[in-house]
Design a protein that fits this description.
homodimer, alpha+beta, Arc Repressor Mutant, subunit A, 3-stranded antiparallel sheet, 3 strands, DNA-binding
DNA sequence: TTTTCATATTGACATTTATCTATTTGTGGG
DNA sequence: CCCACAAATAGATAAATGTCAATATGAAAA
């Protein structure tokens, strides 16, 4: 996963509503109308958020008749976790021999 | 870690420059002047990014004379990873009994 | 085919954000 | 005390973002 991909995912998660959407999807696939019930936002706004989540690969959309069902993309989620796992936090000091 | 805390961290990571800063700090503590060398941005802009990273708890600042040394906060990073770990991606379908 | 319903797109607007220049703050050395 | 330097803050501005009302699309039902 590239920095740009990761930044896109972070940006997508950096909104309280979208974070809540991801949490809801974490419980299993949901259609847009069910998701909408959980929020105080308009239908176009939810649709816009879903587009953001889909475009970064975190969420997949499945069309079934009139309804669109959304679910988390486990593969992307795993890759993102691996990306974050690449950050270490060495406790030793003096890493910067500044002056 | 609350949703708001996590959203703050995500927002902080949702910028290519800040992601790069975190990667640099992942290699150990660095002072602001060393970080600045790695970018094509002005000193105030870097300072602004560091403030964002510090305010979400991902980075700690340590003052030493005229210099400020920054490092990743391992605790926050761990909490954030745990937060993301809370998202499951159940593969079973039919989670939404929509219609 | 006409209607109805679920979702997506458009266009507009207010807010937030990333960035810069200019200035200020704080620290240490002459 | 004054100067030099590292970093932070202030103020301004262009770009991105979240939101909504209005409209379009697309699919099933009547």
């Amino acid at each position: 996963m590239s920095d740009m991909d990761a930044a896109l995912i972070c940006k997508a998660l950096g909104d309280a509503n979208r974070l809540k959407i991801v949490r809801l999807l974490s419980g299993g696939e949901k259609c847009a109308c069910k998701l909408l019930e959980a929020f105080d936002i308009s239908q176009p706004t939810l649709s816009h958020h879903m587009k953001t989540l889909c475009e970064c690969g975190l969420v997949c959309a499945r069309r079934e008749g009139k309804w669109t069902h959304y679910s988390l993309c486990g593969e992307t989620l795993a890759e993102f976790r691996a990306f974050l796992g690449g950050f270490d936090y060495p406790t030793q000091e003096g890493g910067c021999s500044c002056h």
